[in-house]
Amino acid sequence: MKIKNTRLLQALKLEPVDVPPVWLMRQAGRYLPEYRELRTKAKNFLNLCQTPELAMEVTLQPLKRFDLDAAILFSDILTIPHAMGLGLSFQEGEGPQFAKRIETIKDVEALPIPDTENALNYVVQAVQLIQQELNGRVPLIGFAGSPWTVACYMIEGSGHKNFITARKMAYQAPEVLHALLTKLVVATTQYLKGQILAGVNVVMLFDTWGGLLTPDYYQRFSLSYMKQIVANLKADPQTAHIPIILFSKGASVNLEAMAQSGANGLGIDWTVSMRDMRARVGNKVCLQGNLDPAVLFSTPQIVQATVRQLLDEWGAHPGLIVNLGHGIEQHTPIENVEALVEAVHEVKR
Ligand code: CP3
Predict the structure, then answer these.
(1) Distance from C-alpha of 27 to C-alpha of 182, rounded to nearest angstrom
(2) Whole-angstrom distance, CA of residue 20 vs CA of residue 286
(3) What residue's CA is closest to ligand 1, atom 8?
(4) pLDDT-based confidence at residue 349 (cuts at 50, 70, 90)
(5) What residues contact 70, with CB distance under 8 A and at least 6 apart?
(6) How far is the CA of 112 from the centre of ligand 1 (A)?
């Protein structure tokens, strides 16, 4: 299908654009009343992800309100461990919880590689439905978690503020962690290939917890495994043409190494300046970010001024995708999201 709005794809190819593309991590979610309504109907979050018609509807909700330059598949990074049989549930207000967790090499060996044709087929169906509805309006981003970030949840068994159990494993039983990450590379490559064959136009790896690692361990346990996924997708003629974005939150100390990963774009959190990041990697790779999600709790005027500052600092260079430095927060006022998107597109007028 021919895509009409190609800003995101052009930015990822470092081509000039009329205005930088803008989309927001977690753009579909609880800050939208129409999301909360569907979520109540679906009873729980997993039903919402696993019912392709509902996942399609939620994906499109933010695009009905805002002039966004991309859609992102509504799903979660924990669908892979869920399909591996770890028993995922989301307790109200408490985040994800697994019935089983990974402790030993036997636990890793017992994990199946989920089949995108069966266990994860709901994602394939959702992508197909979304593309029918989008009808080429904007590109659709598919995604998965990075092996390290997904492993954090599988080892911890739930969310945690610093994933100490997973970090301890990196020192106490690195062979178990390496075995798990190796398995996740295979599963994630297949999963992303399934999304690409179903029709996504870009893929992104969310490495939310890469920044918990030392620079040495980041390269060993997070980046090296993301690189394998990038290499796998770029080596496969069916997936090689799809741009890839890596987002390691809190890990910009490793930016030069990330820029060597083969990915087309890098996500940047809000704790660093985009201008500094660009100076470090030059025009080799597209950068995505990096507004503080907290600025969306100010006023439309402040949001607008913050967006202008980002665009001014960036200048006329190609390769910018405007986004937040992490997911949009739950109680974000909608008018400020509107102001953000409009402020980006205003530079054209
Ligand atoms: O960006 C989008 O709009 C696409 C949808 C998306 C979700 N999760 C939906 C979601 C994406 C890209 C994710 C990725 C994800 N999931 C990450 C990486 C990015 C990040 O935010 O750091 C992580 C770490 C997860 C795991 C996860 N899923 C957690 C920790 C939670 C609970 C915390 C929370 O915010 O509630 C989820 C649930 C989740 N995933 C929700 C949504 C909209 C909220 C579920 C609800 O409606 O209650």
Answers:
(1) 31
(2) 11
(3) 76
(4) low
(5) 8, 21, 23, 138, 139, 140, 141, 202
(6) 24
**Residue 39 known to be catalytic:** yes
Helix axes 174-198, 121-134, angle to 10 degrees: 40
Give the span between the Cα atoms of 271 and 259, in whole angstroms: 18
pLDDT of residue 92: 78
Q: Is the pLDDT of residue 348 over 70?
A: no
pLDDT tens figures, 57-76: 999 999 999 999 999 999 99
Find all residues with CB under 8 Å of 15, minimum gap 6, and list them: 318
Q: Tell me the CA–centroid distance for residue 74 and ligand 1, in Å.
A: 9
Segment (H or E) for 96: strand 95-98
Look up 67 and say whether it is catalytic: no
* The CATH number fitting domain 7-345, selected from 3.40.630.30, 3.30.1300.10, 3.20.20.210, 3.90.190.10: 3.20.20.210
Q: Which atom of ligand 1 is nearest to the CA of 35?
A: 47
Amino acid at 313: E
The answer to whether the CB of 59 is under 6 A from ligand 1 is no
Give domain limits for the chain.
Answer: 7-345
pLDDT computed for residue 117 by the predictor: 86
Residue 153 bears catalytic tag: yes
Q: Which of 30, 65, 101, 275 is catalytic?
A: 30
Does residue 30 line the site of ligand 1, with CB under 6 A?
yes
Is residue 77 within 6 Å of ligand 1 at its C-beta?
Answer: yes
Mean pLDDT score of the chain, rounded to an integer?
A: 97
pLDDT of residue 94: 84
167 catalytic? Reply is no
